[in-house]
Design goal:
The complex is a heterodimer of chains A (297) and B (364). Chain A has a single domain, classed as MetI-like (MetI-like fold). Chain A contains eleven helices and no strands. Helix content of chain A is 77%, strand content 0%. Chain A has 297 residues and is an all-alpha fold. Chain A is flat and about 70 Å long. Chain B is α+β, with helices and mostly antiparallel strands and 364 residues long. Chain B has two domains: 231 residues, P-loop containing nucleotide triphosphate hydrolases (Rossmann fold), CATH 3.40.50.300; 124 residues, OB fold (Dihydrolipoamide Acetyltransferase, E2P), CATH 2.40.50.100. Chain B is built from eight helices and 20 strands. In chain B, the strands form four sheets. Chain B has a six-stranded mixed sheet, with helices on both faces. In chain B, helix 2 packs across helix 3. The chains are: A mainly alpha (297), B alpha+beta (364).
């Protein structure tokens, strides 16, 4: 989308930017307000504003919250190395396939199922799977199978994979769309193995997309409440702790501080992704322009 | 003397669903030959090239290179290198890294790679550009990098898939000369795919015409241009004067052909024909003489056939002038001369004449 048109009056352009800024402001105003009150010593609703970092200090002394943060990071850490290769392979398959619509439909369908329905469906599925594995362990003597599908990290990770894979697929697919497959063929022709052609030729060109997908997975792991809390078997992930604290005590000033930290980190990650993507897009457009322009010897 | 075959393609078939990309193609390319696969887009020439290079596995048939069957070998195990359509350079590597990539994969020492890259850059005229990134090069330079990258591996066959299609007309002409020079210097077999007739004529030792997955005919550029055996070939190499007709009668020397309201006499060049057979005739626009006449008349001289018509269009095309003449039967014929015919205007009556041997007969 471009807001520039060489023939439109300047006031129209300004109006468009003003409108865009207003929309962004309306969307982000609650977040900014939360940040604002998180620095007030007297808390929400006070008539006097006294600046303080105290609530932030309190956040980092809240053991329950820090443990929950740790769990969430562990979940993200386990999910990432599984979902990223899945997403990459799916995007590669999509690019080569002739039946693209079906692949998109299959991979994006988890997005269209409401979180609580998908979460409870997975819960029922794992409970039944657990019965089968318990039966198997009883009859084979392979007792380690018994706990495989107990609710815990593994089931939560599977739930997160189902949830994040569509996003990872879309982000990588968009970056991969610009990649010219002739380059892989050229590398293969020059003697590279399939893996080497991918690692040395394709990956450097889709790296931005892969890193963006990683960032998305981390953000989504923090965002996720329903599926993770249903499948983890314990309400001890970051978002679930934050929400339970709010439900028990109402929004505390520490909660405002925590929410501000998470929002800020998310905004920074998204901004970095947008900036790096637009830079690489500009680079690529420049290159494409040069290729398409009549060549001068 | 027997010619050693560099590439031998036997009964190659490739289908995509119901569509035949290659229909039983047979082809032999001699060692050290500059061979061009010429044909329209979607005709199967790139499929054939990619089958030779190992990028496509044919449904049936076999490919042998230097007498060795390569059907089960992937691209990197075949003695071929490929120059891809467009510019398949690695954008994150500079010119010398691009050129030396194949040698790096073979784990050759850096000193030898540097030496070979420099030599190759001199050969293709890229000296001094080793540190440039692909996006800092012109189209012609990028294609030279691709050539150098392919040639540095010293394989026996270089496959070129529409290598000049992204270049402008003048640069394409220059690169044709360059490609021919390079092929003579390195002495290996070049197989070049193009849909551009002029490009094919200017580089090829031999040309094969491919359309609808079939190899229609092959020969030297002169044979293909002067004596196309196939109606499609005649059309494809730019022949506009093609007429449907019927054989009236014939003897060993002449054939009388009915082209609706007109009869044309052509030389019988040992054609395998029958009376009343439907055939096609073609004649090159530069083989026809055009003379201004005051009256429409028809006369047949000893060796020349003459027919009358009216000028419907005159176009000045720089090096030559093109006249469009409407014949009595309403058909149009195109005449090309090196100079303007003095005093000839639109709607003037003209007589067209040609040597009877210039009209070619095609059975399909």
């Amino acid at each position: 989308m471009t807001l520039r048109d060489d023939f439109q009056p300047i006031w129209k352009l300004l109006l468009k930017w003003l409108w865009l800024s207003f929309v962004v402001f309306v969307l982000m105003a609650p977040v900014f307000y939360t940040m604002y009150i998180s620095f007030n010593k007297l808390g929400f609703g006070a008539k006097i504003y006294t600046f303080t970092f105290q609530w932030y200090i309190n956040v980092f002394s809240d053991k329950q919250l820090l443990t929950a943060l740790g769990w969430t990071m562990i979940l993200a850490g386990i999910t990432l190395p599984i979902v990223i290769p899945f997403g990459l392979l799916s995007a590669k398959f999509y690019k080569k396939s002739h039946n693209k619509v079906w692949i998109v439909f299959v991979l994006l369908s988890p997005l269209f199922v409401p979180a609580d329905i998908l979460g409870s469906a997975l819960l029922v599925f794992f409970k039944n799977l657990n019965k089968i594995f318990t039966f198997l362990s009883d009859h084979t003597g392979l007792y380690f199978l018994e706990t495989w599908f107990d609710l815990g990290i593994m089931t939560a990770v599977i739930g997160l994979i189902v949830y994040t894979l569509p996003y990872v697929f879309v982000v990588i697919m968009i970056t991969m769309a610009r990649y010219r497959p002739e380059q892989t063929e050229a590398a293969r022709d020059l003697g590279a193995t399939a893996w080497r052609a991918f690692w040395e030729i394709e990956f450097p060109q889709i790296r931005a997309g892969v890193f963006s997908a990683c960032a998305f997975v981390v953000i989504l792991t923090f965002n996720e409440y329903t599926r993770t809390s249903l499948l983890k078997g314990g309400f001890d992930t970051f978002t679930s702790v934050l929400i339970s604290q709010m439900l028990n005590t109402g929004m505390s000033e520490e909660s405002y501080a925590m929410a501000s930290i998470v929002s800020l980190v998310a905004i920074i990650i998204v901004a970095v992704i947008l900036i790096s993507t637009s830079i690489s897009k500009e680079k690529l457009e420049k290159q494409t322009r040069r290729i398409n322009e009549p060549a001068i010897k | 003397m027997t010619i050693k075959n560099s590439i031998e393609v036997k009964n190659l078939v490739k289908t995509y669903g119901d569509v035949y990309a290659l229909k039983n193609v047979n082809l032999q390319i001699a060692q050290g030959e500059y061979f061009v696969l010429l044909g329209p887009s979607g005709g199967g020439k790139t499929t054939l090239l990619r089958s030779i290079g190992g990028f496509i596995r044919p449904d049936k048939g076999s490919v042998a290179i230097n007498g060795k069957n390569v059907d089960n070998l992937p691209p990197d195990k075949r003695p071929t290198s490929m120059v891809f359509q467009g510019f398949a350079l690695f954008p994150h590597m500079n010119v010398s890294q691009n050129i030396g990539y194949g040698l790096k994969i073979k784990s050759i020492s850096k000193d030898i790679i540097d030496e070979k890259v420099n030599k190759m850059m001199n050969l293709v005229g890229l000296s001094g550009l080793s540190e440039r990134m692909p996006n800092e090069l012109s189209g012609g330079q990028q294609q030279r990098v691709q050539l150098a990258r392919a040639l540095i591996l010293e394989n026996d066959v270089l496959l070129l898939d529409e290598p000049l299609s992204a270049l402008d007309a003048q640069l394409r002409k220059d690169m044709c000369i360059e490609l021919k020079r390079l092929q003579k210097t390195v002495g290996i077999t070049f197989v070049h795919v193009t849909h551009n007739q002029e490009e094919a004529m200017s580089v090829a030792d031999r040309i094969a015409i491919i359309a609808n997955g079939e190899l229609l005919e092959q020969g030297t550029p002169r044979e293909i241009y002067s004596n196309p055996k196939n109606k499609f070939t005649a059309e494809f190499i730019g022949e506009k004067n093609i007429f449907k007709g019927k054989v009236l009668d014939f003897n060993k020397k002449l054939i009388n052909v009915d082209i609706i309201d007109d009869t044309i006499k052509i030389a019988n060049l040992n054609y395998d024909i029958k009376t009343n057979q439907e055939i096609y005739l073609s004649i090159k626009s530069e083989s026809i003489d055009i003379i201004k006449k005051n009256k429409i008349e028809k006369s047949i001289s000893k060796n020349n056939e003459t027919i009358n018509g009216k000028v419907s269009e005159i176009t000045f095309l720089g090096q030559f002038v093109r006249y469009l003449v409407v014949l009595n039967n309403g058909k149009e014929i195109q005449v090309r001369t090196n100079h303007e015919v003095k005093g000839l205007k639109l709607k003037d009556n003209v007589a067209l004449s040609w040597n009877i041997e210039d009209f070619l007969l095609h059975q399909n």
